[in-house]
Specification:
- The structure is a single chain.
- This protein has 4 helices and 8 strands, in the order H-H-H-E-E-E-E-E-E-E-E-H.
- The protein has about 170 residues and is an alpha+beta fold.
- It has a single domain, classed as Porin (Beta Barrel).
- The radius of gyration is 19 Å and the shape is globular.
- About 5% of the residues have low confidence.
């Protein structure tokens, strides 16, 4: 019993075969958009993202931050490495780096998140992260975080649609 359990666990976490790639949500739905509460831009943000490969995700966004009791715009760009991104699992841990700057480029900082990302079957996504944010301009480094909700979508070729429908009918 223990041996079969170990085999199942190894297959779940290390499976990189062709069958797993068909089911990989990061490969099926590589593009996305999300709304952030907190995060690299400050308080509230909108972003777009793309999985270049199932383990690497790049993101570009804009949001609002509070500077001297006035909300101002900021922009951020960065990437994340998803551990287990090549597997068929819907949930992955990630580590990333972002560069965020104010609209007039007066304020600039880096943002290093460590988080959990989930792509649900209906393509809705959520992420939660904690991050270290060094800020050299103001000699202030803080721990920060974010909660993101979004939607992943993909472009399916005729071949992918046929393969997916064949797999779906086998169940």
């Amino acid at each position: 019993m223990k041996k079969s359990l170990k085999i199942v666990l190894v297959l779940l976490f290390l499976c990189n075969g062709a069958h797993a790639i068909k089911l990989n949500p990061r490969k099926k739905y590589p593009f996305g958009a999300s709304i952030h509460l907190l995060g690299p831009s400050g308080h509230l943000a909108l972003s777009v993202n793309a999985f270049v490969v199932p383990k690497i995700n790049i993101e570009l966004g804009t949001g609002l931050y509070n500077a001297n009791s006035l909300f101002q715009y900021s922009t951020f760009i960065g990437g994340k490495y998803h551990f287990g991104g090549n597997s068929f699992l819907n949930t992955t841990f990630y580590l990333g780096v972002y560069d965020a700057f104010s609209h007039d480029f007066n304020r600039h900082h880096l943002y290093f998140p460590l988080g959990l990302h989930k792509i649900k079957r209906n393509q809705l996504t959520w992420s939660v992260e904690v991050a270290f944010q060094p800020d050299k301009a103001y000699y202030d480094s803080t721990f920060w975080g974010a909660f993101k909700v979004g939607y992943q979508f993909g472009i399916k070729t005729k071949k992918q649609k046929k393969e997916f429908s064949l797999f779906k009918n086998k169940k």
